[in-house]
Amino acid sequence: MHDFVQHIINGISLGSIYALIALGYTMVYGILKMINFAHSDVYMIGAFAAYYVARWLGIEAQPGIASLLMLILVSMLACGFLGFLIERFAYRPLRKAPKLNILITAIGVSLFLQYSGQVVFGADPKVFPEVMTDYVLLTFGPVELRSFDLTVLGVSLVAMLCLEFLIKKTKVGRAMRAVSSNALVASMLGVNTDKIIAFTFVVGSSLAGVGSVLVGMKYPKIDPLMGMMIGLKAFVAAVLGGIGNIGGAVLGALIMGLSEEMVVAYLSSTYRDAFAFGILIVILIFKPAGLLGKYSVEKV
Amino acid sequence: MSSPLLTVDRLEVFYGAIHALKGISFQVQAGEIVSLIGANGAGKTTTLRAISGLAPSKGVITFDSQNLATHKSFQRVSLGIAQSPEGRGIFPEMSVLENLEMGAYSRKDKSGIKKDLELCFELFPRLKERMAQIAGTLSGGEQQMVAISRAIMCKPKLLLLDEPSLGLAPLIVAQIFEILKKLNQEGMTVLLVEQNARMALKISHRAYVLETGKIVLEDSAANLLNNDEVRKSYLGV
Ligand SMILES: Nc1ncnc2c1ncn2[C@@H]1O[C@H](COP(=O)(O)OP(=O)(O)OP(=O)(O)O)[C@@H](O)[C@H]1O
Ligand SMILES: [Mg+2]
User: Fold this and answer.
1) Structural domain of residue B21, as residue ranges?
2) Which residue, B155, B178, B197, sits at the end of a domain?
3) Among A10, A26, A274, B209, which has the minimal tally of Cβ within 10 Å of its Cβ?
4) Strands (E), A141-238
5) Which residues of B touch A (CB under 8 A)?
6) Segment (H or E) for B62
7) Which of B11, B15, B21, B194 to mutate to test the pocket of ligand 1 (most atoms within 8 A of CB)?
8) Average confidence (pLDDT) over A231-239
9) Helices A147-169 & A65-85 angle (0-180, nearest 10)
């Protein structure tokens, strides 16, 4: 029983990282009806940006929440800027092109980032600097709440609440919803849709930046291909929740995090990754629109 | 006569190989209600889309002495062109109030926005009651009210309306046309597309008849109501 509670804590912590990345997939899908396959590699670049800045500043000398927040900001800026460039120069010229062309371009951008990463950063894993120290904050009997888990939860929660506020309560957020609901009508009402789309990429990418530093902190090994598996799981989370649906992405990510933790704990860690694919197949068969999504026939 | 508010000159629209508008020309004077009538597929919606900058067009559209070619669709709103599109185009996941606020997207005059919101609620008291309701759950007529109000919230000089009566009960249609008349009397210029030609002609000053992408007839609304061709083809008598 105590084990179970512990696994819940770990699963939620993992799930909230998936959520930060899943949100980027779902926001871009919501507004452009495309899967941004390069998203997971933007995440990777964010981790490296934070890594180099941390080394340059010698951040290990002063671990703590301030250092963490600083690195998160660095990664958000790097990812946001990269997301902006990708949208501007890779996707925008293809706005009216067939879906398949856009899909292939997205895969191309993804591969480009992965291989450039291997050339520039080297293919070997790097050890992410220790931004914070991990210790046991609270114990309830054998159940531990570690500082890393609390930090991951707290930071993701704040990031998601900010996003919620942005989308639900601000003018630009309303415009984002308008463009994703009906871009033609939005522009008929005066919305510069190109600007809103670019903004959506920046916001989605910078959330991945937040995730990348949290992952770097918790699993301190980064390499140019680190985005692939976590990106895939976040993508499955977005599909599970109903791609295009913000709340769905968070729900899907929590389910993914929890079930992965449970699979590893009670079945075998061999199935850790296979499980994600399993979930994807099951949703595609039984609930292709996802848990919170509305089913619509997609013309590809 | 002063120069027209809207001048459309040899407007052509191609959708791929489909020649939807074959060079139409017409004007709308400030203060007028002008109707475009025509059968299904004649090109009425396409004309309004081209004016709003949402159809690939050739020819010259001049609005308020500005050539619209240099204005993207989203920039035409601040020039004073608003449209309530065919099929209403409301944002179904947003509340009624948010839909109306989207209409005011390009505006900065907070007090003016508030006043126009009051005006919409005065015109359509139903919307005031339903302010917080999700627009997708409104009835068709209520959604039409949202679409029209949203266009009013743009504070346009020229209001483009694409089939505001579509699918509505006669009583609501009459109400909506009353409101259009009232808005017009208060100074708003209206370009109206309608299947319900009789209703449209009754409140219009002038009208153009479109047939497969060409204007075949133009006259005062009163004359058209008595024109035999029009009576036979569009008024069903
Ligand atoms: N996006 C499009 N792609 C291809 N053809 C189109 C497109 N939109 C309209 N058309 C064609 O252009 C012609 C004019 O269409 P339009 O919608 O302007 O007609 P309309 O007069 O508004 O008709 P209705 O009264 O049925 O609304 C039609 O033949 C239509 O099939
Ligand atoms: Mg039409």
Assistant:
1) 1-80+157-237
2) B155
3) A274
4) 143-146, 221-222
5) 52-54, 72-75, 77-78, 82-83, 85, 89, 91-94, 98, 101-103, 105-106, 150, 154
6) strand B57-63
7) B15
8) 95
9) 40
ipTM rounded to 2 decimals: 0.93
Treating both helix axes as pointing N-terminal to C-terminal, what angle do A2-32 and A147-169 enclose, rounded to 10 degrees? Answer: 30
Average pLDDT on A239-244 reads: 92
Domain with A200 in it: what CATH number? 1.10.3470
Which residue in the set B74, B82, B89 is minimally distant from A191, CB to CB?
Answer: B74
Residues B119 and B166 in one domain: no
Domains of chain A: total: 1
Instruction: Give SS3 for B25.
Output: strand
- Window from A137-141, B112-116, B179-183 with minimum mean pLDDT: A137-141
- Please report the pLDDT score of residue A295 as a whole number: 55
Domain match, B7 and B21 both: yes
pTM score: 0.92
Length of chain B: 237
Residue A299 in tokens? 């013309």
* A83 vs A88: CA distance, rounded Å: 8
Mutate to test the interface with B, among A171, A188, A296 (most CBs of B within 10 A): A188
Do B112 and B202 have their domain in common? no
Q: Which of helix, strand or coil describes residue B27?
A: strand
